[in-house]
Amino acid sequence: MENNLRKLLSSFSKGTFLFLIFAPVVLFADPGFKLRSIDIRSYPEVKIRFHSNTPIDPTGFVLSEELDSVARLTESFRFEPIESKNPIHLYISIPSYTNAEDRRWIIQLANQLVKSSEQSGGTSKLQIQSDGTKHSFERIRSQVLDISFPFPKEPAPIYPIRNWENFLEGIAKNQSEEDHILVLVSFAPEWQDRFEIPELAKRIRDKNLQLIVLAPSSLEATKLASYANGKHYPITKSDSYSDLFSYLRALGQEDYELVYQSPWKLSRWKTNFVSGKLVSVDQGIRFVFRYELSFFRTLYLQLSDPLFFFPVSLFLIFLCLAALYYLRGYEETNQSLATITNVESEFSERKEELQVYDRMYGETMEKAARDREIAVAIAEKIPLAGSSYSYAVLILRDGNHNTDQFPLQFDEVTIGSWESNHLVLPDPTVAGLHAKVKNRKGKYILFDCVSQTGVYLNGKKLLRPKVLHNLDEIQIGKTILSFRGR
């Protein structure tokens, strides 16, 4: 590598790089057309975006479209330059150095390559070739590629293709319309692993990368560039660098848009494959493209149109919200019906128990029947046993020893989990209407409203209404209430 570099440095001065950056664009005999995109959203108007490495003279062109081996010329067309940068993304693989002179030259080469990418608005990734160690620098800037750059010193790679394959593994597939270029630099006149050239070229094509090989003139370098549809610039020729940087600058120039009306004016909803051809005999240009018209493609283009997509999306969102609101009301109605059905089934299952309960103290589902025993006692003027209180409260204790007092200020106080009760207990084991306390001339009587889990008074299940006394403990579900009267 040292001999090759010395031959190169003797024919290529240090100031040549600065000249290459400011030199005028070199015009190529091959205009280098590259198709960017085809826009048929406004068909029969067709918009073809392409890139040309040389300026285009709009005169002297002939544009035609071919359908089923029948060609028609377009009536008119126009070229419109697109005033925006075309970013060039470079992936550069360079060898290491053997002495200080080689180091300065390699860093200067990498600096100018990265700078050409920066001027177009692109990014660069740099790899230092090594058979044993991986050196890779993501999104490197030209400012850091100077004499102070921490350039690792590695021996010349014996297997350069394997180095490049490892480098290629860390590069994502190019799925955009931008230029992603793989630049491979080698000073070796021949490669030991040259039998792997076809596989490397295939992987480069699969990644949709453009290839530039900067290496001595050899059969290996020519084959790699040819198999990968890339370019080979001999490293020992000074003209190669002028051509290389001119090519990179040309890629960063503005794109063109070809706008015309299709002479066929086909239906967008039927499948047709149309080929287009742009030819200029004077300028030696022959540019061929193809586009498809079909039902699914047209539907996709319609849905991707913001003027169509956003209104339809808002309408669908509103429709979904309305459906959710309706289903919520429907679900609440079903839950209410299910609750009523469950209550009825529970009470039907306990029919015999209700009959016994009714015989004992006349308590049934109907409100009038629940008060029958008290009404009979009052009618017969039978005095109720127990003490009378002018004021009474129920005290609720929680697990943190906090207390809540509920005064019994009504003639009838209902207790349960329903919000309509006077005293609401947020306990899942408490029924909707679980119990009640009635005030009869200062005597407070506790009733079980035929609850499933029952009511416990001082640890015993309440089988009939009982008059409450001061300090009585009432258990409803898992909730403990204390009765206080004075």
First CA to last CA: what distance?
Answer: 109 Å
CATH topology of the largest domain: Rossmann fold
Number of domains: 3
Q: Quote the beta fraction.
A: 25-35%
Give the low-pLDDT segments. Answer: 1-31, 361-365
Q: How many strands, what sense, and barrel or not for the largest sheet?
A: 6 strands, mixed
Helix coverage percent = 25-40%
Any idea of the CATH class of the largest domain?
Alpha Beta
CATH superfamily of the largest domain: von Willebrand factor, type A domain
- Count of distinct strands: 25
Protein structure class: alpha+beta
The helix tally amounts to 12
Average pLDDT reading: 81
Principal-axis shape equals elongated
Rg measurement, Å: 45 Å
CATH architecture assignment of the largest domain: 3-Layer(aba) Sandwich
Strand order of the largest sheet: 8-7-6-9-10-11
Can you characterise this structure?
By secondary structure, this protein is of the alpha+beta class. The chain folds into three domains: 25-85 and 254-301, Immunoglobulin-like (Sandwich); 88-252, von Willebrand factor, type A domain (Rossmann fold, 3-Layer(aba) Sandwich), CATH 3.40.50; 392-485, Tumour Suppressor Smad4 (Sandwich), CATH 2.60.200. The chain has twelve helices and 25 strands. The strands form five sheets. Strands 8-7-6-9-10-11 form a six-stranded mixed sheet, with helices on both faces. Strands 16-15-25-24-21-22 form a six-stranded antiparallel sheet, with no helix packed on it. Strands 18-17-19-20-23 form a five-stranded mixed sheet, with no helix packed on it. Helix 4 packs parallel to helix 5 and helix 5 runs parallel beside helix 6. It is elongated and about 125 Å long. The relative contact order is 0.10.
